[in-house]
Amino acid sequence: METTHKVYFKDSSNLSEVESDSIDLMITSPPYPMIEMWDSLFSSLNGEIKQTLEDKDGKRAFNLMHQELDKVWIEVTRVLKIGGIACVNIGDATRKIGKTFQLFPNHVKITNFFQENDFIELPCILWRKPTNSPNKFMGSGMLPPNAYVTLEHEYILIFRKGYIKRKMPPKSENRYNSAFFWEERNKWFSDVWEDVRGISQNLNENNINQKNIRKRSAAFPLEIPYRLINMFSLYEDMVLDPFWGTGTTSLAAMISARNSIGYEINSKFMGLFKKNMGKLRKLNNEINNNRLHQHLEFIKHYRNKVKDIKYNSALYKFPVITKQEIDVLLYCIKNYSEDENKFILNHQKFEFAQ
Ligand SMILES: C[S@@+](CC[C@H](N)C(=O)[O-])C[C@H]1O[C@@H](n2cnc3c(N)ncnc32)[C@H](O)[C@@H]1O
Predict the structure, then answer these.
(1) What is the pTM (predicted TM-score) of this model?
(2) What's the gap in Å between 135 CA and the centre of ligand 1?
(3) Which residue of 123, 236, 237, 352 sits 20 to 30 Å from the alpha carbon of 131, by its own alpha carbon?
């Protein structure tokens, strides 16, 4: 199987290289309005934002920043297929404007846009970001009533374009091959994720410079797009990230044997992306091995409760809980080539040594 991955270093408010109704899944994390690290980017997109912030008009700055994001969401609406899914990772912002500490609920603004523009809202996921710092609490210390709750979660907002679910050919082999395990379903489709650091630590280890770039880029953990891609798309689908950053969504698409397109206004992240690509084959094998070993571990415990498991994986031969998992198949990367921000990958079936 072959997949292609293309990155355009330009403003995603115009996705002119992408045909209408051609994208199966959009996964992205935009710059977060009213988080200071993104002030200069929003101000470069609209000069009025800088002035409004200087004038301490928080509400207007918040609205203007979302108007910039809306331009991209309009394009996303055009290029997504009917029945395609849009997943937006976003955090709310807290900020002192003048002397007043307040919340800017980014997830509400984005939800409003999608609800008003042909999308159906689906249940969202909250993922918890670990904050251990004793200084994380804000406000009047131990004295009521003016202490503030700390934000320790982000949202993954999930929308479907249109009322109609995506149509699948009956018994589509690709769909059954793209199945995930029963116990993964139970974990991934839960509305609170508390365990998302995991596999992203394999990228950028032992390299302080790369860690810094990742921090400045506000990259999300690889586990997030990896799960979402496996939850909401099939092998060979096309995944779009209009706020590509360091390309985490494309890396996740690569190890999940999907195609991808990214847009990024800042080309400086390409170096880090290429470095991470060099580690991708190894990481892909590790992730596959982990998933299959975790499945075997799960089956061992499950057997204590239920002696007779009815089904077996056709390829891997181990037991699976449901009929839908029989054709589960994982791919790994055989080789890849690169040509001007376009990557072509060859994938092969992943063999599992138990
Ligand atoms: C939160 S970061 C995305 C991080 C990414 N998910 C990752 O894992 O690296 C948002 C990115 O959007 C980019 N960006 C902001 N506005 C943009 C626009 N209008 N067009 C394209 N890229 C934009 C920023 O440069 C930044 O890299």
Answers:
(1) 0.95
(2) 29
(3) 123
The rounded distance, in Å, linking the Cα atoms of 273 and 217 is: 12
Closest Cα to atom 27 of ligand 1? 245
Q: How many angstroms separate the CA atoms of 280 and 291, rounded? A: 16
CA–CA gap between residue 28 and residue 31 (Å, rounded): 10
- The angle subtended at Cα 231 by Cα 112 and Cα 300, nearest 5°, is 140
pLDDT of res. 136 = 66
Q: What is the pLDDT of residue 201?
A: 45
* pLDDT reported for residue 210: 56
74 ligand 1 Cβ < 6 A: no
Q: For ligand 1, pick from 73, 222, 244 the residue to mutate: most ligand atoms within 8 Å of CB.
A: 244
> In which residue ranges of the chain is pLDDT below 50?
198-202, 205-206, 208
pLDDT of residue 186: 97
